[in-house]
Specification:
The structure is a homodimer of 161-residue chains.
Chain A: H1 31-50, H2 57-68, H3 74-81, H4 85-97, E1 101-105, E2 113-117, H5 119-139, H6 145-159
Antiparallel strand pairs in A: 1-2
Helix pairs in contact in A: 1-5, 2-5, 3-4
Chain A binds a DNA duplex (23 and 23 nucleotides) through helix 4.
Chain lengths: 161, 161
DNA sequence: TATTGTTATACTCTATAACTATA
DNA sequence: TATAGTTATAGAGTATAACAATA
């Protein structure tokens, strides 16, 4: 819960003597470079704004999915969020300990466990989702509503193939 | 150099019984979620195609920057790529050991070290940049040339503020 | 035999503190 | 005093192998 400050993208007032400008034109012509930089920028703001809830991006995504898919299994969460099963165990266990979600036996599959939000979990997700919208309004402030939609549509075309 | 295979985004044939579709509509309405998924998709392809050169994204970015900015210092690389100085040391040292770049005394600042590509480094960067273009043509195959430009322009507006 | 969830574990990535040499 | 580069190290993130219980 003790969230650390990300300093790497500060690149504040730069240096004193060697104030030479770096040519980044080639990297900036690559989709991968731009997508990664943009994602890291948004994550940085996300970590800051979501620290009041004690939620990292992965916790938020997980809770939001459970919220809209009550009874979802770990396996479904793994394939949806791209998390390996062993790494999901602690995520779910921690959110369980915090009283945000509950594990219940799956109605039809004895191996599986259905995940459900608690009352507290539902309340937090509701508030955190509002914060997520607000924070994205901030990072996308230089984009028009249409540009923002176009951007998300094009990004989805990249990862949904 | 022994690159491992990323399996998390495989989500192959999904499951047998519980083939329920997961509602991801809210997450997909968030810029951060879409940007991160797209970046990870591109990185996965990058790792695969660049494994012949033994270059990870950070190695490639570093060499490409040194190529276009001969004599660039570690400090400049750090602020450009968002890497913390202690973490850059091994990156540069490894590329030096591989004979791809050289460290030379900085002409005016005795504390600093200028980075330069070797002949082998220049050759590898040249080839790797071609491969990077090809691989991006692949991941962006469903986009028109104009859409691809729009996408990169909008991404730059997110992280250049 | 295959799958769900799990434990143990290892490797990579990212971060902080503190040092040295130079400015 | 401040900055460039470095060392040591800690913590988070991501990966594999192997197991028990159930299908």
């Amino acid at each position: 819960m003790t969230r650390r400050i990300r300093t790497f993208s500060r690149q504040t007032t730069d240096s004193p003597g060697s104030e030479a400008v770096v040519d980044t034109s080639f990297l900036e012509s690559l989709l991968g470079y731009n997508a990664r930089r943009a994602a890291l920028t948004i994550i940085e703001v996300f970590l800051d704004r979501m620290s009041v809830y004690g939620l990292r991006p992965v916790d938020f995504s997980l809770l939001s999915l459970v919220s809209r898919n009550p009874g979802i299994t770990s396996r479904q969460l793994c394939s949806t969020l791209g998390i390996l099963p062993p790494n999901l165990v602690k995520l779910v266990a921690d959110l369980d300990k915090r009283g945000l979600l509950q594990r219940k036996p799956h109605p039809t599959d004895g191996r599986a466990i259905g995940l459900h939000l608690t009352v507290d979990g539902r309340k937090m997700v509701r508030e955190a989702e509002v914060t997520a919208r607000e924070l994205e309004d901030g990072v996308a402030a230089t984009l028009t509503t249409e540009e923002r939609e176009v951007l998300m549509t094009l990004l989805r075309k990249i990862y949904k193939q």
